[in-house]
Amino acid sequence: MLLVILAVPAFVSLGFWQWHRGEYRSALWADFERADVPAIEANAASLERLPRFTRVQVEGEFDPERQVLLDNISRNGAPGYEVLTLLRLADGSHLMVNRGWVPFSGYRDRLPDVAIPGAGGQRLSGRLSTLPVTGIASGKSPPAEEGPWPRVTSFPGQQELAHLWGEKLLAPVLLLDAGSGPGYLRDWKPPGVSPDRNYSYAIQWWSFALLAVAMFIGLNLKRRA
């Protein structure tokens, strides 16, 4: 009886937690889909205020010499990097631009060539988002303080990158549109796993609660019989 009293509320609570996570992800995915609209002009001030996934157009100049490779990013099961490049806006502020995904070469000492041909003034469009966040099985690794560029890092925080570059960074990251500016594979998808997975986990936890109650009742009926 004590086990049932402890287990059933825990299972029910976990089910509601997963259900709420599914609702949160559903709203996030809906925001991502609704952002597939014409880009709006943005500057440093508006970039800090606009909602996540807003499509914007910005003008600035890339910093081609100090790029960062975001490690442990896979596409269709293949390992690789996302290329993060600084864009200096007209007022001197810096926006991080994710220029897309490149495959892992198979050798840690042979990084992909991410040079920007004819780097100069750029007019770019894309969605506003955030830095990638680590999953349960993925590890964080800060960028090296010294050494040649590009620097490799796994799931860095904004403060780590600001320290690395020695620049104050605007909060969002621009996910570069596929047809905008020099870049790589840019098949952006809504963040995280499908909300359906959270909903299925919720149903599983509630099923465990029902099963625990059913087993308790069944065992006690057998004893009385």
Radius of gyration: 23 Å
- Give me the secondary-structure category: alpha/beta
Tell me the distance between the termini.
18 Å
Strand content range: 25-35%
Strand order, main sheet: write it out: 2-4-5-8-6
Structure in words:
The chain has a domain at 38-191. The protein is built from four helices and eight strands; from the N terminus they run H-E-H-E-E-E-E-E-E-H-E-H. It has helices at 2-34, 44-47, 158-165, 195-224; strands at residues 40-41, 55-62, 68-75, 78-89, 94-103, 121-129, 151-153, 169-176. A five-stranded mixed beta barrel has the order 2-4-5-8-6. Helix 1 packs antiparallel against helix 4. The longest helix is centred in the first third of the chain and has 33 residues, at 2-34. The two termini are 18 Å apart. The model has no long low-confidence stretch (mean pLDDT 84).
